[in-house]
Amino acid sequence: MALTADYAAQSKAQIESFDKELCDSARKYWETYPDVAENAFFGRQGGGGCKGAYEHWTRHGRQEGRIWPGNAS
Question: How far apart are CA 30 and CA 57, in angstroms?
């Protein structure tokens, strides 16, 4: 049972670390590309939150030559 609890705690820490890195990168992306930050879907107020910035980059930004500031690229 302890192994399962340790694994769950480690998994939660990894997810929280990834989320923090993603949101830090998203803030940098939005600062660099204010048009994306203001977008109703991919921007700061969009329903996807930090994932919206990364979603924009994977769908459009990479092809447009925009640079993702984090390690997720």
Answer: 11
Q: What SS3 state is found at 43? A: coil
Query: How many Cα atoms occupy the beta-carbon half-sphere of 55 within 13 Å?
Result: 13
Tens of pLDDT, residues 21-49:
999 999 999 999 999 999 999 999 999 99
The structure tokens listed for 68 are 């993702």
Amino acid at site 16: E
Where would I find the H helices in 1-73? Answer: 2-32, 34-37, 50-56
Q: For the chain, give every domain's residue range.
A: 2-61
- Three-state secondary-structure class, residue 46: coil
Structure tokens at 22: 């993603």
Query: Are 14 and 28 spatial neighbours (Cβ–Cβ below 8 Å)?
Result: no
36 token code pair? 């994306």
